Amino acid sequence: MLRLKDLTLVGSRKELSSLPEGKLLINTINAHSYNTARKDALFAEALTKGDCLIPDGASIIKACRWIGAKSQPTERIAGWDLFAFEMQRLNEKGGRCMFMGSSPKVLELIVERAKTVYPHIEVITYSPPYKPVFTDEDNAAIVKAINTANPDLLWIGMTAPKQEKWTYTHWDKLDIHCHVGTIGAVFDFFAGTVRRAPLWWQRHSLEWLYRLISEPKRMWRRYLVGNALFLWNVGKEKLSMK
After folding, report:
1. Phi-psi category of residue 150: left, alpha or beta, with phi > 0 → left and psi -120 to 50 → alpha
2. Contact, 214 vs 188, CB < 8 A?
3. By 3-state DSSP, what share of the chain in percent is helix, strand and coil, each rounded to 5?
4. CA–CA separation, 56 vs 81, rounded Å?
5. Quick one: pLDDT at residue 242?
6. Which domains does the chain show, CATH number per domain?
7. CA distances, 153 to each of 51, 68, 122, 125, 161 (Å)
8. Which residues contact 194 (CB under 8 A, 6 or more apart)?
9. pLDDT (tens digit, 9 = 90+) per residue, 108-149?
10. Pairing state of beta strands 121-126 and 153-157?
11. Does residue 66 contact residue 238 with C-beta atoms inside 8 Å?
C-alpha cells in the first residue's frame, strides 16, 4: 500500500534543473492519485518506482508536514510547471518532442500552438485507440511509434492512473534517451480545450475548486468525496505512526 510518509518527492521547482539527463520517468502525485494508489497496487508501484515524483497539490505539501513524512517539499509543482520547464529547456537547444495520448483534435491544436510558443521544437504526436484496455497489438504499435520517433522529450497523456501504469509496464520496451512525463490534463491546457484556473486561484491553492466549479458533473466526486477520503487516509497514516 502506498504511504505518503515513505515517498521521495521533488522538493521545489528549482530542483527540476538538477534532474539527471537521459531516460527518466517523472510522475506527479496529488490527493486524487494518492487515494487511487492506496487501492491500486500497480498504480502505487508505478508511482514509487518511477525515477521522480512531483507533488502536484497543496494538500500533499501540507499532509507531508502534518505527518512528518520523509520528504518535506516546500512548494507545489504542478504538471504544468514540469511541462513549461522541460519545454523551455528543449526549445533553447532545439530538439524533438513527442505527445502520446489524447485525441487527434487535441494533438492537432498542440502542434499548431507549439509552432508559435516553442518554434525550435519539432513536435510529433500519436493518438492511441480510445478504449479502456489496449490490446497487445495496440501496445506494440504505441511502443513502435515512440521508439521510431526517438524523441528528446516525451509526454504521456491518457489520464491517471492509466498513463502511469502504461508507461511503467512498458518502460523496458521504450528504447529512448529522454525525460518522460505523465501529464494528462496538461495536453488539454496547452491545446486550449480546457481552461486552466487563473493565477489567483492557483496561488491560493484553489485550482481544484476552479475545476469543480467549471465541470461540476465530472469533478464533484473527485473533489468532494475525494478530498474527504484524502483527509481520512492521511489521518490513518498519522495514527499509524504513533
Report:
1. left
2. no
3. 55, 15, 30
4. 9
5. 67
6. 1-77+201-242 (no CATH), 78-196 (3.40.50)
7. 15, 34, 10, 12, 21
8. 185, 188
9. 999 999 999 999 999 999 999 999 899 999 999 999 999 999
10. unpaired
11. yes
